[in-house]
Amino acid sequence: MKKYLRVLSTVLILAVVASVVAACGSSQSQTQSQQSAEQQTQQTAQEPAEKKIIKVGIGLNEQSPQYQGLLKFKELVEDGSDGRFEVQLYANSQLGDDTKMMQSLRMGTLEMTCPSTAPIAGLNKQFMVFDLPFLFPNEQVADKVLDGPTGQKLLDSLSESDIKGLAYWENGYRDLTNSVREVKSPADMNGLKIRTMENPVHLATFRALGANPTPMPFGELFTAMQQKTVDGQENPLTTIYLQKYYEVQKYVTLTHHFYSPFVFMMSQKFWDGLSPEDQELIQSAAIEAGAYERQVNREQMAQMEKNLADAGMVVTKLTDEQRQAFVDATKDVASQFEDEIGKDLINEVLSQVQQ
Ligand code: KDG
């Protein structure tokens, strides 16, 4: 019996010791897990919040004034947010053409892009008003109308397409190139296959000039000219030079037939997820970078006639009479689009141009 009691007491002592050890262990592990949780909290508090990435896609290359404007935007947003945002730039149609990139904004898979107004017509026909031939007599009038109430109204209308329109930047006056003949009059354009942007006003304008227009995404243009799929194209002189179109085009005529604005835009989904303070930061940076881009574009444009002549192109400057023949040949284009653009909007813009 005594032996039984000794064994029982030993077992009881061992059980008590084991439970004390277990209790210490669990409290130790509780302490450890509490400590690690505290360390985590402290570490997290020390670590910056995860950066928000803003991807921006364009069609032009890294030498373009448009890309210089994006670098300015990147600097303003990253510095202005103390690094909470990281702006990633993708040039050369890496993320698709203008239409594809705008679709990506609508789906929320891309944050920003900066197309010409022309392809925006596929989303909002009112934007065709800014692509009417010979609309703006100079950049100052263009800035006044685009940065005024009518321009803002059209930017705001992009919300119907799940896009936040932020600011107008500048692509610039568009001039004609071709590989067939010197062009001094609409008659010289007869039958030329000219690539245009994907916009009904552009197609109607080049038909009115006697050409054979072919709409095509920007990224396919150089190859099309190289393979003679098209005879020519039209773009601002800076684009003609920086994209090396002089390698596949002989003639450039300074028609200045369209003034092409860019629209710097953001995915509405991404915009809606921003705080009011960050929305203000993005909006002000888009406007400031746009003013800078316009300045760089105009400075660079001044060099381009010489650059293209030095590159071997025949640069044709039109007399006032010669240019008037192009204006006269396209004067009925606007009336063809009164229903799609809206007659009131056309007249609103024309009245501001003439003020
Ligand atoms: O980055 C802008 C380009 O995608 C495009 O808009 C340039 O003017 C242009 C064109 O002819 O397509």
Q: What is the average per-residue confidence, as pLDDT, rounded to a whole number?
A: 91
- The sequence of SSEs as H and E is HEHEHEHHHEEHEHEHEHHEHHHH
* Regions with little confidence, pLDDT below 50 for 5+ residues: 20-30
Main beta-sheet annotation: 9 strands, mixed
The best one-word shape is globular
What is the percent of helical residues?
40-55%
Strand content: 15-25%
**Helical stretch count?**
15
Tell me what the structure shows:
- By secondary structure, the protein is an alpha/beta fold.
- It has helices spanning 2-46, 65-80, 98-107, 117-120, 139-146, 149-157, 200-208, 221-226, 237-242, 268-272, 276-310, 320-329, 333-336, 338-341, 343-354; strands at 52-57, 85-90, 112-113, 163-178, 193-196, 212-215, 232-235, 251-267, 314-316.
- Strands 1, 2, 3, 4, 5, 6, 7, 8 and 9 form a 9-stranded mixed β-sheet that branches.
- Strand 1 (52-57), helix 2 and strand 2 form a beta-alpha-beta unit.
- Helix 2 runs antiparallel to helix 11.
- The radius of gyration is 31 Å and the shape is globular.
- 39% of the residues are buried.
- Residues 58-60, 66, 98, 115-116, 171, 197, 218, 235, 260 line the site of 2-keto-3-deoxygluconate.
TL;DR of this structure?
The chain is α/β, with parallel strands linked by helices. The protein is built from 15 helices and nine strands. About 3% of the residues have low confidence.
